[in-house]
Design a protein that fits this description.
Elements: H1 2-17, E1 21-22, H2 28-32, H3 39-51, H4 57-63, H5 69-77, E2 80-81, H6 88-179
Parallel strand pairs: 1-2
Helix pairs in contact: 5-6
């Protein structure tokens, strides 16, 4: 018998925890239990409720900063009510949520094609940049090689007159030493 009573109490508690939370009667903890409502928004709700009860959803949206129609729809789907009524946009929000995957599924092939095109463009651009860099490096290498060869030739040209000038001086120095 005790087990049955405890089971019934557990079921009642479970049903009560899934029950709608009325914004005009809820405590801060009950408001926080609604997905999307944190301590900041529940504090704003309680502050506005001190000024007077919320007449309807539009009054709630107008008075509580940070709550728009989208948030009101989300809160309503999570179980929040104003004077026992759900947000009238909540049903539309659920329908939109169901319609959105269908639209997304229909546009998915088009998006995949766009992705492929953008990926192909990016790859082609990257390849072109890589090819341009390679050609630039090749041209720089050729220019460096030519500059090095030119420098070597200039050094060789500068060494020829000095070498030919050194030969006569050496031959002139020879007869002077031969005189002794």
């Amino acid at each position: 018998m005790l087990k049955k009573i405890l089971a019934i109490l557990a079921m009642l508690y479970a049903v009560a925890s899934f029950a709608a939370v009325d914004v005009n009667k809820a405590t801060a903890a009950e408001l926080d239990s609604i997905k999307g409502i944190g301590p900041a928004i529940s504090g704003k709700i309680l502050d506005e409720r001190k000024k007077g009860t919320f007449k309807d959803w539009q009054d709630f949206i107008d008075r509580v900063k940070g709550v728009g129609e989208n948030n009101a729809a989300k809160f309503s789907t999570e179980g929040l009510t104003v004077n026992g009524s759900a947000f009238k946009g909540a049903a539309a929000a659920r329908k939109d949520d169901k319609a959105a995957p269908a639209k997304a599924a229909a546009s998915a092939p088009a998006m995949k094609e766009e992705k492929k095109d953008s990926k192909a463009e990016a790859k082609a651009k990257k390849d072109a940049e890589k090819k341009a860099k390679a050609e630039e490096a090749k041209a720089k290498k050729a220019a460096d090689k030519k500059a090095k060869a030119d420098a070597k030739m200039a050094k060789a040209e500068a060494a020829k007159p000095a070498a030919s000038a050194a030969k006569p001086a050496a031959s002139a120095a020879k007869p002077a030493s031969a005189k002794k």
